[in-house]
Design brief:
This protein has a five-stranded mixed β-sheet with strand order 1-2-10-7-3. The protein has a three-stranded antiparallel β-sheet with strand order 4-14-11. About 50% of the residues lie in helices and about 10% in strands. Strand 1 and strand 2 form a beta hairpin. It is built from 16 helices and 14 strands. The chain is of the alpha+beta class.
């Protein structure tokens, strides 16, 4: 798992892991890796046997408090409901309008040029803008917030941090905390319609949440809203460019777009690993994992398990075993959003966000293709996505007409 070969192309190892070592132990980090769909689904849905206690070490130091994944029972239900309300209903409709405007503004400078890096020119700033809009934070601060967010995300998603990187990540968390403190004070006294205001004014057991609770949930939402979006948008276009027949079908029939996004999430999930801790010893495929062990669920490997999906290494937006309608719910067959109690709180928002952006970009990026000399590369073990995605397309005049 920690080799350069695995980092370069983890999908080349999935079948061998599932078939020969479905319970793989990495002594360097004293952790077990599960690659079969049935084992991963079991871990993610059995919350008593497989807990989230490791987040006290993996997340709490940079989240500045407990995150949703650490909560259970009435507390989890109540606080998750508060967050979900900020992503659904009328709030979601307002966000979709903001997402469309934001995406159009970011893409506009590149349309006359006929070239864009969909990751660095568009995806990364867009994802942070969208998260800031949900929270009600100033979009002008996006680069500063993005830098702090990157440090927090690095801490949570790294399998091994050097002392220098750990200090950097903790410093990013402290700076983000200091940035949010006056915002929280202001929203407590003059709440608006944004999610931070909802968090500041909501009550749990008759008591409003502390500043520490609110800060942790803000950072939780920032990562959940920003982390998968840029990767999934770029990966969607990569797969459609690689499969021109399916690209043509999606262009002709916009109703297929949701299926293309769902298949992108199955085929190349942006979140590749989800950790849990065994409460008691557990047996998988005849191998015993001891109590108190860290277990990493390999989402990418599980999503390509032939016991769960037919011809799993093929990208196919028409596959009958995916179920587009349920692919963004707790009933999803793919595991890109996790499963069970701690399924990603922003799944519905992610679908609306990515569908809105893709529906905007597809007609604008006519004859889209890789730029000459571009070499595709992905990075990341915990979360994974393209380093860049340089694309050429038919340039568009400022008036919106194409240049022949």
């Amino acid at each position: 798992m920690l080799s350069d070969e695995f980092a370069a192309a983890p999908e080349h190892f999935y079948a061998g892991l599932r078939e020969r070592t479905p319970v793989h132990y990495e002594p360097a980090i004293d952790s077990y890796f599960l690659s079969r769909h049935q084992d991963v689904k079991r871990v993610l849905t059995d919350h008593d046997a497989f807990t989230t206690e490791m987040f006290q070490v993996r997340a709490e130091p940079v989240m500045r408090g407990r995150v949703l994944a650490q909560m259970t029972g009435a507390e989890h239900t109540a606080k998750r409901k508060i967050v979900v309300r900020g992503f659904t209903g009328s709030a979601l409709q307002d966000q979709i309008r903001a997402i469309h405007t934001n995406a159009a503004e970011l893409m506009a400078p590149f349309l006359p040029q006929g070239r864009v890096d969909l990751v660095n020119d568009f995806g990364k700033p867009f994802a942070v803008h969208a998260a800031l809009d949900v929270l009600g934070l100033d979009r002008a601060d996006w680069q500063q917030v993005a830098g702090w967010h990157a440090g927090v995300a690095e801490f949570v998603t790294s399998l091994a941090l050097t002392p220098e990187r750990r200090r950097h990540c903790l410093d990013c968390a402290e700076r983000l905390d200091a940035y949010l403190a006056p915002v929280i004070r202001q929203r407590r006294s003059r709440p608006g319609e944004d999610l931070i205001s909802k968090l500041c004014t909501a009550e749990f057991d008759g008591v409003t949440m502390s500043d520490r609770d609110v800060t942790a949930l803000i950072i939780n939402v920032l990562i959940a809203a920003a982390e998968p979006a840029d990767k999934t948008i770029a990966l969607l276009f990569k797969h459609l460019i690689d499969h021109p027949g399916q690209m043509a079908q999606v262009r002709r029939d916009p109703d297929l777009l949701a299926a293309a996004i769902a298949e992108t999430l199955r085929f190349t999930p942006p979140v590749q690993l989800i950790p849990r801790q065994t409460q008691e010893s557990a047996v998988f495929a005849g191998t015993t994992v001891p109590a108190g062990a860290t277990v990493f669920c390999m989402i990418g490997a599980a999503n390509r398990d032939p016991d769960a999906f037919a011809d799993p290494d093929a990208f196919d937006i028409h596959r009958p075993d995916l179920g587009t309608a349920r692919s963004f719910t707790a009933a999803a067959q793919h595991l890109a959003f996790g499963a069970g109690l701690h399924q990603c709180v922003g799944a519905a928002f992610a679908r609306a966000e990515i569908e809105t952006v893709a529906a905007l970009l597809l007609p604008l990026l006519d004859e889209v293709r890789y730029s000459p000399g571009f070499r595709y590369r992905e990075t990341g073990l915990y979360t994974r996505g393209p380093v860049s995605l340089s694309l050429d397309f038919t340039p568009v005049h400022a008036s919106g007409t194409r240049r022949d």
